[in-house]
Amino acid sequence: MTSDLSAQPAARYPDALRHRLAEDLRTARRRTQALTDAVDDAELTRQHSPLMSPLHWDVAHIANMEDLWLVRRATPGDEPTPGVREDLDHLYDAFTNPRAGRPALPLLDPVEARAYGATVRERALAILEQAGPDGRALLDDGFVYGMIAQHEQQHVETMLATHQLRVGPRALHAPPPPASSLARELVGTEVLHPAGTFAMGTDATGPDRYALDNERPAHRVEVAAFHLDAVPVTNAEYARFLDDGGYSRRELWSEAGSQHITDEGWTAPMTWERLDGAWHRTSFGERQPIADVADQPVLHVSFHEALAYATWAGKRLPTEVEWEYAARYDPASGETRRFPWGDDDPTPERANLDQRHLQPAPVGAYPAGASPLGVHQLVGDVWEWCDSGFEGYPGFAPFPYKEYSEVFFGGDFRMLRGSSFGVGTVNARTTFRNWDLPIRRQIFSGFRCARDA
């Protein structure tokens, strides 16, 4: 059975919207192909860490989600449309198949996975040409297409993290990030944020119509005054923490954090090592002295490590509310904005996104992206740990499925905000909520500190 594209909605999406949705899908696919074409099929099928999937699993999972939501559910008409490969659903269900066990599944090989993705994409774009609003929230403003573009970009970042965990010659290349003339004056400074009330979250309208369920709805929140670091904690600052015995001073660590670093034998951030008396890191297969990237935000630290550093510095981590307040609230106008710089979308001059540089930029490298109060790099570069758990906002409603957010509420997760250099622009919202376990550090995570006013 094939889909009947003659059963069209009353109106198709406007041309501009259809073109944007198609381009968002194509942009994500270009990144997927770049990451998978960079290595051979043996590398695609290898599991580089039990924390990560083999890359070819991600390729087919991306296709399966698109098959499920765009081919089967976005077709005009009242009847469900058969998928391209419904027999694969059980293999590529991320919720029921933990990452560590995915290599044991009878997965598609890389050639088959790519072919599956190409077939699904061809069908999805053909459906988009005929698609339009039909009374379902799923298709309002093309939400389901935006959701799938974001889903692929999220897996692209996951695949990028898998590349970071690879052992072997460098496979990815990118130009260096821009330099910063402001790093020296910004490092170690903090900004007072006065008390106020702002609209946290979003009602997913206008430019933010593709916001995911855990970002909704917008709600007013009162915030007490606090100080926030002007920039994320840098490699040089974190190295001073290490050199002051930070990992051996158990009074700086939470009980859970101390137990974990003891069990794992951690003595520094992931990829760091001390050679000839100096700290080095390995970035996508290339070893670099920390002295050469001293002003970049520290990367690949867990929540426990971030919290221990903040304690050492006599500070704390910001809450999720404080982080979003700093990123969106303009105290001069009293307005809640989309981004630190205003309401316009991110650009390469404002934020380090889209895997352009394969590493964070030095702090202060994006003055055009600073907040009105002078807080820099709240969007892009590194995900920033916040000392808050993952819960739904008042009035939360799962959409379009509970397994995206609701099933994770109330666990041991900690929030990450702000996006990393590996995040696609389509996902880079100041309302976007990322979460992970406090022990995780294979993600592109950093932090900045806060303290009470």
Written account of the structure:
The protein folds into two domains: 15-165, Up-down Bundle (Four Helix Bundle (Hemerythrin (Met), subunit A)), CATH 1.20.120.450; 175-453, paralog of FGE (formylglycine-generating enzyme). It has helices spanning 15-37, 41-45, 55-71, 110-130, 143-165, 183-186, 235-243, 255-264, 303-312, 320-328, and strands at 190-193, 196-200, 219-223, 226-229, 272-275, 278-283, 286-289, 329-330, 335-336, 383-386, 414-417, 434-436, 445-446, 450-452. Helix 1 packs parallel to helix 5 (143-165) and helix 3 (55-71) runs antiparallel to helix 5. The protein contains ten helices and 14 strands. It is α+β, with helices and mostly antiparallel strands. The N and C termini lie far apart (65 Å).
Put the structure in a nutshell.
The chain is built from ten helices and 14 strands.
Question: Could you say what the CATH topology of the largest domain is called?
Answer: paralog of FGE (formylglycine-generating enzyme)
For this structure, what is the CATH homologous superfamily of the largest domain?
paralog of FGE (formylglycine-generating enzyme)
CATH architecture of the largest domain: Alpha-Beta Complex
State the major sheet: 4 strands, mixed
Structural classification = alpha+beta
Count of distinct structural domains: 2
- What is the β-strand count? 14
**Series of secondary-structure elements, N-terminal to C-terminal:** HHHHHHEEEEHHEEEHHEEEEEEE
Strand fraction equals: 5-15%
Radius of gyration: 22 Å
Strand order across the biggest sheet?
A: 12-11-10-13
Cα distance, first to last residue?
65 Å
By CATH reckoning, the class of the largest domain would read: Alpha Beta
pLDDT under 50 segments (min length 5)? 1-7
Instruction: Tell me the helix content.
Output: 25-40%
State mean pLDDT (0 to 100 scale): 95
Form type: globular
Number of helices: 10
